[in-house]
Amino acid sequence: MNKTQLRKYAKLLATMGGGVKKGMDVVISAETDQPEFVKLLVEECYRAGARKVEVDWHYQPLQKLNVRHQSQKTLGTLTPWEVEKLKYRAKTLPVMIYLLSEDPDGLRGMNQEKQSKATQERYKIIKPIRDTMENKYPWCIAAVPSEAWAKKLFPHDRKSVAVNKLWDAILATARVTDDPVKAWEEHNRDLAARSAYLNSLHIKKLHYKAKNGTDFTVGLMPESRFAGGEEKTLSGVRFNPNMPTEEVFTTPKRGEAEGTVVATMPLSYRGELIEGFSMRFEGGKVVECHADKNEELLKQLIAMDDGAAYLGECALVPYDSPIRKSGILFYNTLFDENAACHLALGMGFADCVDNFQNRTLDECHKLGVNDSIIHEDFMIGCADLSITAETEDGKTVQIFQNGGWAF
């Protein structure tokens, strides 16, 4: 892979992705697959002025071993030094950059029920600390290839060829062009304009319908607002949380979702794939679900806590998005969610509430923002998807037609 292009990508993630500025601390979370690129990214963070850059390394086989050999109590316990580390980050608010490269099937065979119960215990401590960081720090999720992930996408190629093909796809969808910064500035302007138009409609409900069986209505809060692309922290630091991104999204109102949604792409969850699934909602909550593969894992996801069965996000992505046009099923939510309209189970976004900067997190929850320890996107977009909006003044406006924007 061309090192000049990789350097451009690293610089893009540090500056426009994480918004690194002079004096900031940075934490990079990465698998062990691309140490040379992680080194480039660390260098670019320092060039952008970072005071200190840390790397948290992860390795899927070790996670499987820990789940197999540790007791559930041990897995679910945070040691005092781990708690202090979280509190330190909540105080210092470093830029968080997450590099994804996991094998989509890398945790197959792991005891998922044991892991779920341990996660629930750990989050009793983690979540209150993380809540204090809400909208206060910049973050960016991006990707680099691993051999296992690349071979999943390109099974007939040699590992080296498959990895280079995946690099090409990642760089193309992340807009690593001759001038990536200019490309992202133009893209952010388009997403901001679409968000502004949707906000001007004052939408009360969205109705989704497709021939595959999706027939679903979701309610929005009067305070809900659409957003997309660049965001900024409460202190004004600009960053791009997802690279790539094609979505315009909002947070729906908890308790207002009715009907059936049919997933149009697999969901990669905890190193396993959930495929061929659908969900039925009543009173805003999933009351029935089915899957051709890993239905039990889907049920565990929905039962993670009280909020896991409710929606936290409605995202609009045209069916002709660049990621869809690539013709690649990435088996990775960062990419696949940007190939199709999607919903998310679990935690909603407080910053999708009007005037959120002057509201507490509890106030946002009382307005209808869902709260949960999870946030898991699943794709429902397809070529014939229609979405209509019912506005607060009783009008019906076509938002999507034949899978794409109607405006």
Measured by DSSP, the beta-strand proportion falls in 25-35%
Mean of all residue-level pLDDT scores: 95
Helical percent range?
A: 25-40%
Query: Ends: how far apart?
Result: 39 Å
User: Using only CA atoms, what is the Rg?
Assistant: 20 Å
Which descriptor suits the 3D outline? globular
User: What structural class should be given to the helix and strand makeup?
Assistant: alpha+beta
Number of β-strand runs: 19
Q: Count helical runs.
A: 13
Low-confidence stretches: none
Instruction: Specify the biggest β-sheet.
Output: 9 strands, antiparallel
What can you tell me about this protein's structure?
Helices cover 35% and strands 27% of the residues. The chain contains 13 helices and 19 strands. Strand 11 and strand 12 form a beta hairpin. Helix 1 crosses helix 2, helix 5 packs across helix 6 and helix 7 crosses helix 8.
Topology:
Layout: H1 3-17, E1 25-31, H2 35-47, E2 52-58, H3 60-69, H4 72-75, H5 80-92, E3 95-100, H6 112-131, E4 139-143, H7 147-153, H8 159-173, H9 180-201, E5 203-209, E6 215-220, E7 231-232, E8 238-239, E9 248-250, E10 252-262, E11 267-269, E12 272-282, E13 285-293, H10 295-302, E14 311-316, H11 322-325, H12 333-336, E15 342-346, H13 361-367, E16 375-379, E17 386-391, E18 396-401, E19 404-405
Parallel strand pairs: 1-2, 1-3, 3-4
Antiparallel strand pairs: 5-6, 5-17, 6-10, 7-8, 9-14, 10-12, 11-12, 12-13, 14-15, 15-16, 17-18, 18-19
